[in-house]
Amino acid sequence: MRGRGSRSRKRSKAKSVLFYCLLMLWPTAQFLIFYVGVNVRSFVIAFQNPDTGAFSLQFFREIFGVNWQTILLASRMSLITYLISLVVGVPLGVIFAYYIYKHYFGSPFFRVVLYVPSILSTVVMVTLYYYFMTGEGSKWLFHGNNPFLDTHYQFWVLAFFNVFISFGNSVIMYTNRMVNISKEVIEAGRVDGASPFREFWNIVLPEAYSTIEVFLVTGVATIFTNQWCLYLFYSAGGLDPSMQTLGYYLFRGVSGATEAELGGWSALGLLMSAVAIPLTLLVRYLLKRFGPDYQKKARIRA
C-alpha cells in the first residue's frame, strides 16, 4: 500500500511539473525570440559592415559625425523630461498619496481621477486630451491656436499631460505602502505631539522610501527610451524638431529604416545603454547609500 501511494504521489508531482512546463513554454519562447534573439542580433549588426558583413565601426562613426547634433538635442530633451518627472511628478505623487492616505476631504474623488489614466489605454487618454485642448472651450487659452502645433505651447501641454498620466500607478503604489505603515508608530507620533507635516516628514516618508526609490531608479533607466507620448500626438508630423526625445527619435528611425540602416540604430541603442546602465547603477547606489535605512544602521553602529 505504501509503495502504491508513493507511486501515486510521484505521478501527481510529474503531472504538476509537466503542466508548469507547458504553461511556461509560450512566455519562455517569446522571451527567447523577442528579447534575447532581437538583442543579440542588434548587437551583432551594430558592428557589421552592411555590404560585406565584416567587422566594422562604420555606424558608430556616423553617429559621432553626421547625426551628432540631432542626438545631442534629443538627449537634452530626454534629460528635461526626466527632470520634470523628478522635480514635479515624484513630489506631487507622494503628496497626493499622503492626502489620500489621511482620508482628507475629497480623497476618494482624487483617487478615482488620478487612477483613471491607469485604467484607460494611453491612446484613449491622448485622444481625449487632444480634443479637449483643441476644442472650442479651450481656444481662448491659446488665442485660437492649436497648442500642439504652436511652438509657444507645445512643451507645456505635453509636460502637463505626461505629469498627469504618471500619477495613476505612482499614487496608488505610494498609498498602498503608506497604508501598511504600523499604526502603532503613527499613534506614537501623535502622542508625542507630531504635527501632520512632522508625521509626513519623519514617519511616512522614510517608511515609503523603498517604493519611492523604485520609481526613481526605474525613471533613470528609462531616460533614453521614454517617448513622452510624442509618437501618439505627432505620428502625422507637426512636432518641433527641438522637442523630440531620444526615445521618439529612435522609434521613428527604426520604424522607417531599411534592412541596411538598422545597424546604425542598433549602434545608437548600444551607446544609450552604455550610458544608462552605469548611470542607473550609480543612482541606485547613492539612493541606498544615503537612504533612511543606511542612516539608521549607521546610527546603530555608532
Give an overview in words.
The chain has 302 residues and is mostly helical. It folds into two domains: 2-46; 66-301, MetI-like (MetI-like fold, Orthogonal Bundle). The chain contains 13 helices and no strands. The chain is globular and about 75 Å long. The model has no long low-confidence stretch (mean pLDDT 84).
Task: Give the key terms.
302 residues, mainly alpha, MetI-like fold, 0% strand, globular
Task: Please specify the SSE layout and strand pairing.
Layout: H1 2-46, H2 58-65, H3 68-101, H4 107-119, H5 122-133, H6 154-179, H7 183-191, H8 196-207, H9 209-221, H10 230-234, H11 246-255, H12 262-289, H13 292-301
Helix pairs in contact: 1-12, 2-12, 3-4, 3-6, 3-9, 4-6, 9-12
What's a quick, concise take on this entry?
The protein is mainly α and 302 residues long. The chain has helices at 2-46, 58-65, 68-101, 107-119, 122-133, 154-179, 183-191, 196-207, 209-221, 230-234, 246-255, 262-289, 292-301.
Largest sheet: none
Write out the CATH superfamily name of the largest domain: MetI-like
SSE ordering: HHHHHHHHHHHHH
CATH class categorisation of the largest domain: Mainly Alpha
- Quote the average pLDDT: 84
CATH topology value of the largest domain: MetI-like fold
Structural class: mainly alpha
Strand content: under 5%
- Which geometry do the CA atoms define? globular
Q: Tell me the Rg in angstroms.
A: 25 Å
Question: How many H/I helices?
Answer: 13
Helix share, percent:
over 70%
Number of strands: 0
Low-pLDDT stretches: none
Distance between the termini: 63 Å
In the CATH hierarchy, the architecture of the largest domain is: Orthogonal Bundle
Number of domains: 2
